[in-house]
Amino acid sequence: MFSFRRWLLLAALALGAELAAQPPLTTVQDILYTANGNLFNGVVTITWNTFEVSNTSNISGSTTNVRVSNGNLFVQLAPTTTANPVAGYAVEYNGEHRTQYSETWIVPPSTTPLRVRDVRLPPGAVTTQGPPAITLIPIADVVGLQSALNLLLSMGPNFGVARTAVINASGSIDGAIGNLSDCVHVDGTSGSCGGGGSSGTGFIDAEIPGGTLDGVNSTFTLANIPNPSTSTAVYRNGLLLKQTGDYNITTNSILFVAGAIPQPADSVLVSYRIGVTIPGVGFVDGETPSGAIDGVNTSFTLAQTPMPAASLAVYRNGMRIRSGLDYTSTGSSITFVANYIPQIGDVLQCSYRIAQ
Q1: What is the pTM of this model?
Q2: pLDDT score at 187
């Protein structure tokens, strides 16, 4: 009996060590289409050589087949941008009983799902173990460079591409904050054309918030205060983020949580309402429908009935899915189809209009 117990203890310790070395994974999730606009159906074959990930877990070379049904691609892979040695994934798209296309994926670490465009290696590009050596030349060694730099205006905290330039109180160049349809006033503020100030009522669509995209800054500023704050929809690289999960709203400030801070190459767009009142119409924003997310349950229930039914927008892990293809809805009920049942860890969000 004693020997058997000791064997169980050793087995438990070995299992614990194995679990502790589990490699990090990045989710690649996207909707694939063929060139004629049809949803892709087939198999994506992914092949890789042996490499070591950032936590020293060893990834043995292998091949896996990922079935894509109705265009839905979902796969989790070990990051290769931090691999040793440098690594990548050879990807083949197989449909209609043949290999239709091949490409290479370079997968970075990410806590949020990435699209194929985020991991695809452009044709002709190569991967390297690291950047080449750089020789730094001190500014003082270049005659007249420091004097020329002193005459240049610096970029302010709200500087952004494709924005009207304004000079802030510190003498730096900033980007005007507002919507694309706004007019810029002499003092650098923006608002509705023909009116004063930046406040008003209505819908604000695809606003670029003010703030530095550097992977460190977590606070971004909107031109107006969302009313209600729950109407705020923040999209990062086209994916809808979850309020209180990925960010929080305080007046007209967006505060990203540590794991969701935008990176330098990210695209951030925000839509929201400002005190919209339409007789007989109400809005429901970012609702999580009731129902078990366990990979088995297909039925979920909304708090109210969408009116009209077509106003219902369902997002799974930030990606909007299609009614009649990925799910059906009747009244306040949502039923997912067999190939798109929400899995454990998925995030569901629903927005819709109601009759009042």
Answers
A1: 0.45
A2: 66
